[in-house]
Specification:
With 106 residues, the chain is mainly alpha-helical. The protein contains four helices and no strands. The two termini are 14 Å apart. The mean pLDDT is 76.
């Protein structure tokens, strides 16, 4: 590939990786319930990112810490799995388009 066509896979991969790594796990985790007993400002920080949940969990008693970290880790894992599946579909679609392009030019 040369010229503009070679830049398309790189640009697409960059955008989807950014979306998947950052947005999908956060969207899944933001929908999880924070257990009662977590202060509202801490709950807000814990819903934002996995890092926020880890930071909040360090300051909580062990039982609350476990209740915050379990769903956060599960949501992050599910988000990464969803991200991998989406990227696989995009890669497969790109391969099909590339194969068709190659066969039509020969």
């Amino acid at each position: 590939m040369s010229g503009t066509a070679s830049g398309i896979p790189r640009a697409t991969r960059r955008e989807w990786i950014g979306l998947g790594v950052i947005a999908l796990p956060c969207l899944l985790y933001s929908a999880t319930a924070i257990p009662p007993g977590v202060p509202p400002e801490a709950a807000s920080a814990a819903r934002g990112t996995l890092g926020g949940a880890l930071a909040v969990a360090e300051r909580l008693p062990e039982q609350l810490s476990t209740a915050v970290l379990g769903p956060a880790r599960e949501a992050f894992t599910q988000g990464m799995q969803l991200n991998a599946a989406i990227c696989a579909v995009i890669a497969l679609g790109t391969a099909v388009v590339a194969a068709r392009q190659r066969s039509s030019t020969w």
